[in-house]
Design goal:
Blueprint (H helix, E strand, L loop, with lengths): L14 H4 L6 H13 L4 H8 L3 H13 L20 H10 L1
Helix pairs in contact: 2-4
Protein name: HTH psq-type domain-containing protein
GO molecular function: DNA binding
């Protein structure tokens, strides 16, 4: 069974369209306070502010672990993962 190229095209977004923008920490903190203090739903807030629902849920979970939601600080983890510490790198470099 053969298909023409036109029938197999998949509707995929370009990489630039599929990526979400990073949410500034001050904006995320404001949104989290709105969810926790004003009791607005995560789903509704994610639609209003165009922030990923799962990202909001993770941030709300972290904020709820604090005793005071006012003290919540959003710190995005955008650094590269380090496998070895600098001491381990030096040690392994000397062995090889």
């Amino acid at each position: 069974m053969t298909y023409s190229d036109n029938t197999l095209k998949m509707n995929r977004k370009e990489n630039s369209e599929a990526r979400r923008e990073r949410v500034p920490p001050d904006r995320m903190e404001r949104v989290i306070r709105e969810i926790l203090i004003d009791k607005v739903s995560v789903r509704e807030t994610s639609r209003i502010y165009k922030i990923s629902k799962s990202a909001l849920q993770r941030a709300v979970k972290k904020a709820m672990q604090l005793l005071n939601a006012e003290k919540f600080k959003h710190e995005p983890n955008i650094g590269n993962r380090r496998i070895f510490t600098t001491e381990q790198k030096k040690h392994y470099a000397n062995i090889c």
